[in-house]
Amino acid sequence: MTNFRTLVRRAACLALASGLAVVAPGAAMALDTVAVGSQYDTTHVYMSPDDVDAFVQSFTATFGGQSTKQGVADVTPTPSSTTTQLVQTPVGTVSLFGFKTPIPYPFGAERNGYLVADMDAAVAAARAAGADVIVQTFPDPIGRDAVVQWPGGVNMQLYWHTAKPAYAPFQTVPENRVYVSPDRASAFVQSFVTFSHGKVVSDESNAAGVEIGRPSTTYRRVRIESNFGRMQVIVTDGHLPWPYGRETTGYEVSDLAATLAKATAAHVKVLVAPFASEGRNSAIVEFPGAYIAEIHASAGR
Questions:
Q1: Pick from 118, 127, 230, 291: most CB atoms within 10 A?
Q2: What does the alpha-carbon distance between residue 148 and residue 132 come to, in Å, rounded to a whole number?
Q3: pTM of the model
Q4: CA 7, CA 193: separation in Å to the nearest integer?
């Protein structure tokens, strides 16, 4: 583990010294990564236990797939109780929590969980890349977890399973949608790319404002890909109309109109009607339990 950590620290120092926000394609994959695969990236969704069943039915009716059997467990390092299940679809997975007790701080603020091959190495790599470890490593019923915070205040959970899971790859890889300020955007991008050994596939300084509900403006949009999956970094001044900024995941589908028809039949609210921008047709919806998500398809679908 010493060699791995040393390499990570050297990479982080070189990246920070250069001040570059964009990594040349392929260059970021030179070092081993602690990522296991994008199919193990789960969006963390918290809601009232009373809404859990309705959410599962609606989410799977919209995207397909199924849920694991619901259990009740303590998934935090301090005493708590929640229903817990994994809702797996071809376009994204949700870790669903229906807390029966008050939610211990800072849980509920983390946007997603990443499966890592080695928890100690992952935590060391996150620290070396500039993250704060805001919840130190702790055991859960099936492995170990930690929560980290990236520059810009972006919280994510890292997790490791005692018994290695085996999930089928996604048909389309979901997109983490991260909103950050101009003050911390470049630091966030550099830090996460260093940790993930990913690459910036595009950095558009004048993306169309219609994508954030402000059609008369532009904004900076950064797209990142790594073995953890896809990420879209949305850099704004925070003057966002509702519900922009509330969606944490974007789901790619083959036919947006057909997916929205399934969604509305399953009691999903369309909050932002479909619109076209730069090769995509997109919409924002709200599932039972107040889970807000973006859905998109390639233009023409």
A1: 291
A2: 6
A3: 0.88
A4: 15
